[in-house]
Design goal:
The chain is α/β, with parallel strands linked by helices and 206 residues long. It has helices at residues 25-33, 54-62, 84-94, 114-122, 142-163, 179-184, 187-191, 197-204; strands spanning 12-18, 41-47, 69-73, 100-103, 128-130, 175-178. The longest helix is centred in the last third of the chain and has 22 residues, at 142-163.
């Protein structure tokens, strides 16, 4: 990160739960390290019971990332009525330090202006922002093309629903939320057990 920071921009904590993502974590940290955001950023990686070499990959890659990387271990508690991912998300938020929380997944790659594009909308007064997600990869077969089309179609429907004032959906791999707003609803415990935590979180704020 550059030594000069814009103190007027909010600090951003990128919270990423992961499980067995050894093949993706180095690419993830590389793209996050190229962010051209002038405020402070931290990366909070939450290990959700990985059994592969994910932690080793993080230790090897973190020192090359110009953004501070924090690794925390999430231990699934069956007495809490949440999925293991939901518990990992809440632990990530509790372990973070900044007022803007960005949720994403470990199998992502980002444009260098990704963080700023979310913060720019947040600065207009939005408590929650979610962005566009596209599929990328080496596969160019018909299945991959169909997946890409399907994802674009879902975003089109979500946009139309939003314009019509109807609750639609969002992508938990590309979401910014105001920390105080998230805490005010009780985080994941506030929305309760669900495997579509991104949609339920979106519902609270629409």
């Amino acid at each position: 990160m550059s030594a000069s920071r814009n103190e007027e921009l909010p600090g951003v904590s990128v919270v990423i739960p992961f499980r067995n993502e050894a093949d993706n974590l180095e690419t993830l940290l590389g793209s996050l390290g190229r962010q051209k955001y002038k405020g402070f950023i931290e990366i909070v990686l939450v290990n959700d019971s990985s059994t592969d070499n994910s932690v080793g990959v993080i230790h090897n890659a973190a020192h090359k990332c110009p953004i501070p990387v924090k690794l925390v271990e999430s231990i699934y508690n069956q007495e809490i009525a949440l999925t293991s991912k939901q518990q990992a998300l809440d632990l990530g938020v509790r372990s973070s330090r900044y007022g803007c929380i960005v949720f994403t997944d470990a199998d992502m790659q980002f444009d260098e202006h990704w963080v700023y594009s979310l913060v720019k909308v947040y600065l207009t007064g939005a408590l929650m922002v979610f962005g566009h997600t596209s599929l990328c990869g080496q596969r160019k077969d018909m299945f991959a093309l169909w997946q890409s089309f399907q994802l674009e179609y879902l975003f089109t429907i979500a946009y139309a629903f939003n314009k019509a004032g109807i609750t639609g959906s969002s992508m938990g791999n590309n979401m910014l939320i105001d920390r105080k707003a998230y805490e005010s609803i009780g985080g994941q415990e506030g929305i309760g057990f669900t495997i579509v935590e991104d949609r339920e979180l979106y519902n609270v704020f629409t």
